[in-house]
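Protein modeling request. Please complete all fields; requests missing the sequence field cannot be processed.
Requester role: graduate student
Desired output: 3D structure, token encoding
Chains: 1
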Amino acid sequence: MRFLVLYDKSSLIPALRCGWGFACLVDGRVLFDTADEPEPLFENLEQMNVKLENIKAVVISHDHHDHTGGLWGLLEQRPGLKVYACPGFSNEFKKRVIALRGDLIESIGFREIDGRVSVTGEIPAQYKGAPKPEQALMARTANGIAVVTGCSHPGIVNILAKVQNIFPAEPIALILGGLHLRDTEVNTIDVIASQLIKMGVQKISPTHCTGERAEAIFQRRFGANYIPAGAGSQIEI
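Delivered output (237 residues):
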């Protein structure tokens, strides 16, 4: 299964736009998060030869503009598109999806998108003292479950515990996405890295809000199983 990073804080390909947001195409058909604006998302889709009609569903990790910004332009061009969201997202978000004729699907718990791709459903979290529920995408690959995250506000260890509760017999083949560790102390990051290794995570590719300090620690701890990320990254699992 292929994971294509469409938008991130940096780019591995000069022609691609980058900025403070995240978007990843899973298996050529499920879009996870939508960058911070429609224009760079559409430009990168065109640069990477991804046709809008091939996108069958959109998963939104959490209700922050740097993950939802491109959705509104996408729905203007693709009315009827399935949008997987959490029940705890704002009423403003839900009303806007419906107004643009998106097919809003809210999941409090595990939900399959198809036989290979699913979402964890809503995981409680706090951000700046306010509730900020989040969900992760799970993809079944030949090597185990690949987990794609937006910002990991609930904590990546908590997210993985949820994934392993859903798929107890499957190894974690990959973590790809934001881990929100920019302001986290080095010792805490090192403990998190140890927990991920103990949980059997095979490969890791941090993006977006993970932070350079955390990326360096994960690279040291995971060695050859650390995959540098940026717009244009293509990971086959």
